[in-house]
Amino acid sequence: MTPEGEALLRQGAAELELDVEAQVPAFAQLMALLQDANSKVNLTALKTEPDIVLKHFVDSLSCLRGGYLDGAGQVLDLGTGAGFPALPLAILRPDTTFVPLDSIRKKIEFVRAAAQTLGLNNVHPQVGRAETLGRDPAHRETYDRVVCRAVAALPVLAELALPLLKPGGLLVAQKGPITEEELQAGRRAAGELGGRVTGVDAFTLPVLGDARTLIVVEKVSRTPKKYPRREGVPAAQPLF
Ligand code: SAM
């Protein structure tokens, strides 16, 4: 990473009140891995160094706002793609276990290789669909937190994520600006699935000023056994 890229990372993190000084070399290594992989396969749409620093690294770290991930043991990143937000979060939170999940094998292979190169023993990538894991006793109701960025509308996320959370666990969904309509549909879906929307934190992304929202859904009771519905149905026929 260039000195300008490192300075941008420090500035973005500082605006989130995070000190990343000790982790700058790890982020530089992740930058090199992403750029190398992107030159061979189309892994992520963002290719320039400032874009990767701000829209992948700093954007992912913004999930730490509000302290919702503090003290979490196991965090599943639903639809992690090339490892976002899981990899930046795992770099900053070595005591938390992260399970980056994606249905696309080549993306998870990248995440696995990157975690190994970076020595991130707290990252355990999984290939699969959230609907499948949500019905698997090895994963259902086992996670303290589910994080996700840019995966689906809130009612769909609620159906994919709430079955995976322990009662008392939190879904922390990072989105752009959210409409009142999506929020209302999300509240209704959460209610059906044993959840309750407890936080809507609107903020702007450091340096760039883009609008972001962290939606927090608490799992207040067990999810009915009929959820999640089979693969693809939550997105094709959202509950609300
Ligand atoms: N979270 C990453 C990011 O912000 O860069 C990737 C976002 S990408 C737009 C959405 C990802 O979610 C894709 O890689 C897709 O394969 C994955 N995905 C969508 N639905 C999924 C499901 N039901 N189970 C697992 N992965 C899913």
Descriptive account of the structure:
The protein is of the alpha/beta class and 240 residues long. The chain has one domain (65-236): Rossmann fold. The protein has nine helices and seven strands. It has helices spanning 3-15, 24-40, 49-61, 86-92, 105-117, 130-134, 154-161, 180-193, 233-236; strands at 74-78, 97-102, 126-127, 143-149, 165-175, 195-204, 211-219. Helix 3 packs across helix 4 and helix 7 packs parallel to helix 8. The longest helix is centred in the N-terminal third of the chain and has 17 residues, at 24-40. It is globular and about 50 Å long. The mean pLDDT is 96. The structure holds S-adenosylmethionine. S-adenosylmethionine is lined by residues 79-81, 84, 101-104, 107, 129-131, 149-151, 160.
Label the overall shape. globular
**CATH homologous superfamily identity:** Vaccinia Virus protein VP39
Q: What's the CATH class label? A: Alpha Beta
Question: What's the number of domains?
Answer: 1
Features:
single chain; 240 residues; alpha/beta; Rossmann fold; 7-stranded mixed β-sheet; 21% strand; globular; binds S-adenosylmethionine
Could you give a quick summary of the protein structure above?
By secondary structure, the protein is of the alpha/beta class.
Helix and strand topology:
Elements: H1 3-15, H2 24-40, H3 49-61, E1 74-78, H4 86-92, E2 97-102, H5 105-117, E3 126-127, H6 130-134, E4 143-149, H7 154-161, E5 165-175, H8 180-193, E6 195-204, E7 211-219, H9 233-236
Parallel strand pairs: 1-2, 1-4, 2-3, 4-5
Antiparallel strand pairs: 5-7, 6-7
Helix pairs in contact: 1-3, 3-4, 7-8
The structure holds S-adenosylmethionine.
S-adenosylmethionine binds at residues 79-81, 84, 101-104, 107, 129-131, 149-151, 160.
